[in-house]
Hints:
- The protein is of the alpha/beta class.
- The protein has a single domain (5-208), classed as 3-Layer(aba) Sandwich (Rossmann fold), CATH 3.40.50.1000.
- The protein is built from 10 helices and 7 strands.
- The protein has helices at 19-27, 30-41, 47-56, 65-72, 79-88, 101-111, 139-152, 170-175, 186-189, 202-208, and strands at residues 5-8, 92-100, 115-124, 127-133, 160-164, 178-182, 194-196.
- Strands 4-3-2-1-5-6-7 form a 7-stranded mixed beta sheet, with helices on both faces.
- Helix 8 (170-175) links the parallel strand 5 and strand 6 (178-182).
- 46% of the residues are buried.
Amino acid sequence: MSKFFVVFDVDSTLIEDEVIELLADVAGKRDEVAAVTERAMAGELDFAESLIQRVATLEGLPEKVFKDVFEKITVTKGAKELIHRIHEAGGRVGAVSGGFTQVLTPLADELGLDFARANELEVVDGKLTGKVVGAIVDKQAKAKSLLEWADRISFKQAQTVAVGDGANDLEMMSWAGLSVAFNAKPIVKASADIVIEKNDLMQLAEVLGI
């Protein structure tokens, strides 16, 4: 049985939601944020700039919003079983997200991920400042994460699989041994090795033969 290092995008891939939109819901800015998200994922807007715009709308939200939002997240059908199968076959699993560590960290624990990386929202005096701490996880950072992690665990590039849905995933997918478009935008489907239309990540288990 072949073993693979599979790296997932998170929002609309590993989970069915866009976390920033759930956060924006609380701030009463969902429509405004969703419109920017759509343009960014379609490749019409620079991701980093779009993230800065969207995060700014969250200024003033209480820190407890992360717990509330985490409880609303829906893990994509088949994700837990697929991760279990990958591990059983001797593989590893990572997730790299343009979303936020405050939500990805507990999700990574729940799903048993080996690696996870995302943006960190700045919190001061128990409230979001509307800013991101440190470098933004953009398409270059996603690709770099896949290669860095694969090297750390001694997996060859040919053993890497990248799964994503938006323009921000394209560079990571271009470096991976196998690129998978999952519920993806047209720009992503056009360049992926495999396209999965059904909203069930166990479809990938068949592709990997695990």
